[in-house]
Amino acid sequence: MNKNSHKQDKLSLDEIVTAGLCMGCGLCRSIAGSERVEIAMTPEGRERPIALSPLDEKTLEAIDATCPGIRVPSAEPESIPEGAETDILWGPATQMAIGYATDPEIRHRGSSGGVLTALATYLLESKEVDFILHVAASKERPIVSEPRLSFDAVSVLEASGSRYGPGAPLANFMEVLDFNRPFAVVGKPCDITAMRNLERRDPRVKKLMRYCLSLICGGMSDLSKILSALDQFGIRESELRSFRYRGYGNPGLTRMETKDDKTFALTYNDLWADEANWGTQPRCKICPDAVGEVADIVAADCWPGASPTGEDEGFNAIVVRTKRGQELFEKAMADGVLTTIREITFRDLDRFQPHKVRQKKAAWARFAGMRAAGLPVPNTEGLRLEELAREQGWKKLLAQARGARDRVKTGRLGEPSATREPSKNDESYGFY
Ligand SMILES: Cc1cc2nc3c(=O)[nH]c(=O)nc-3n(C[C@H](O)[C@H](O)[C@H](O)COP(=O)(O)OP(=O)(O)OC[C@H]3O[C@@H](n4cnc5c(N)ncnc54)[C@H](O)[C@@H]3O)c2cc1C
Ligand code: SF4
Ligand code: SF4
Question: What residues form the membrane-spanning segments (predicted)?
Fold first, then answer.
């Protein structure tokens, strides 16, 4: 039993949501079926599951075992190559470098240096997989993301760029397995955790899901974050034709295009100027693995201090974690798909991602505070949270724990039960 969590009975979907543990991945909908679980856009601007009828014990058990809101284990030891190091903060890595997509268009259009898009394209073109599961802007509602199955390079490139707002990439994951064709996934760390959890129960996942590519994640924002960006320019959502957060440069502009061909833009630093207005989802604030410990390869930004000082040509920090990741990385390098400029260490990652260092160090104490306030916490077996906590001074731990307990009491760490935003539901959920 994980020392970071207490024993808790199976949680209902509503309990997961109200505890602030759901980030809206959609896997429970896929497990239970769309006739029993709906992923709804809530008035808070989050995608959350609503059970349409009571779920039977077997379904609840399957959700309990796989939901990445409540199960966040470390990587399977056999997936990690011999000689890889496991850092207390960053998890396993066999190789780390600064690099970028060698293809100039991918590098330019990608979020940072286009490494994830380049690897996904390479997997398709070398026929290692038949398609990529990732997300792209919804065609009907461009401020929301939707699951995308990309069967060719054009589609992968179209979906490049980071999407910081709501989207449920796994809402149809069982249908993906039903195709019975090999695929790769690009997703946030929690998306990959969900699929790794499922992999332990469903042999089809092990057989078909060949690669998991991920990113280091600062968290998803509520829709209010994007709506306030539109507000700054007086744009109504109904007028919007496209919404892009970044890319086309590193970091590139946040760009809004209206149906009558007007374009508005914000710099990355302007969009994220005030942390109080990020609209970060409660689950993301306490995320115990936002660094993609269970992915094969992780790509991230590499600005010292985590903020860009201007535009550059595009660079990623690349963390190669598993045996499969190592094979892919080596082949991609040999075939000229990626270019690297230097190796890096875990301590470089500390400099690039100071917010992730603080978050991981605080996780154990925050969970203690949540438990003290009566909330369930995720099971984080193998993530070294208690070990990390032991390295902190007790005063810091106490402050973190009290802070979390108080935030639960004032409603900032839990969430209301999910209800539908008037006029919006998930009827349109599907692949495109
Ligand atoms: C919510 C969020 C928070 C992030 N926070 C940080 C951070 O704190 N620190 C940091 O270094 N980097 C962060 N990133 C990652 C960073 O923005 C880049 O995605 C990363 O550097 C990879 O760059 P790339 O050029 O290789 O990506 P690209 O080549 O542009 O590929 C991006 C891929 O990610 C997929 N994707 C984009 N958004 C989502 C999403 N919401 N859910 C699932 N898949 C998605 C796309 O479909 C695409 O396949 C964040 C990304 C996201 C989505
Ligand atoms: S985190 Fe995912 S699986 Fe868990 S309740 Fe939320 S949507 Fe469902
Ligand atoms: S911070 Fe964690 S829970 Fe939130 S989107 Fe990122 S990986 Fe998922």
Answer: none
Residues of the chain with pLDDT under 70: 1-8, 423-432
CB contact at 8 A, 238 and 196 = no
Task: Pick the atom of ligand 2 nearest to 168's CA.
Answer: 7
CA-nearest residue, atom 3 of ligand 3: 284
Count of all residues that appear for the chain in the document: 432
What is the residue with the minimal CA distance to atom 8 of ligand 3? 190
Q: Which long-range contacts (CB under 8 A, 24 or more apart) does 178-182 make?
A: 179/130, 179/131, 180/204, 180/208, 181/130, 181/131, 181/208, 182/128, 182/129, 182/130, 182/208, 182/210
C-alpha 196/C-alpha 178 separation (Å) is 17
| Stretch (H or E) spanning 223 | helix 223-232
Q: Are 206 and 301 part of one and the same domain?
A: yes
CA of 221 to the centre of ligand 3 (A): 10
The residues lining ligand 1, judged by C-beta closer than 6 Å to any ligand atom, are 110-117, 120, 134-136, 145, 159-164, 167, 169, 186-188, 191, 215-218, 220, 247, 299-301, 316, 353
Residue 46 Cα to ligand 3 midpoint, Å, equals: 13
DSSP-H helix ranges across 320-429: 323-334, 346-352, 354-372, 385-390, 394-409
Measured in angstroms, how far is the CA atom of residue 27 from the centroid of ligand 2? 6
Q: What is the pLDDT of residue 276?
A: 84
Distances, alpha carbon 112 to alpha carbons 152, 205, 311, in Å: 21, 29, 10
- Give the HSE-up count for residue 388: Cα atoms under 13 Å, Cβ half-sphere: 22
Residue 326 lies in a domain: yes
Distance from the first to the final alpha carbon of the chain: 41
Q: Are residues 349 and 368 in the same domain?
A: no
Position 229 in a domain = no
Report yes or no on 259 lying in a domain.
no
- Residue 257: how many other CB atoms lie within 10 Å: 18
Q: Could you give the CA distance from residue 1 to residue 353 in angstroms, rounded to a whole number?
A: 30
DSSP β-ladder status, 91-93 and 47-51: unpaired
The answer to whether position 26 is within a domain reads: yes
Residue 154 belongs to domain spanning: 82-222+276-355
Q: Pick the ligand that lies closest to the CA of residue 137.
A: 1
User: 191 and 321 share a domain?
Assistant: yes
Best of 217, 245, 355, 415 for a ligand 3 pocket test (most atoms within 8 Å of beta carbon): 217
The protein residue with its alpha carbon nearest to ligand 2, atom 8, reads 28
Tell me how far the alpha carbon of residue 13 lies from the centroid of ligand 2, in angstroms. 7
Is the CB of 149 within 6 Å of ligand 2? no
Asked if 200 and 136 sit in the same domain, the reply is: yes
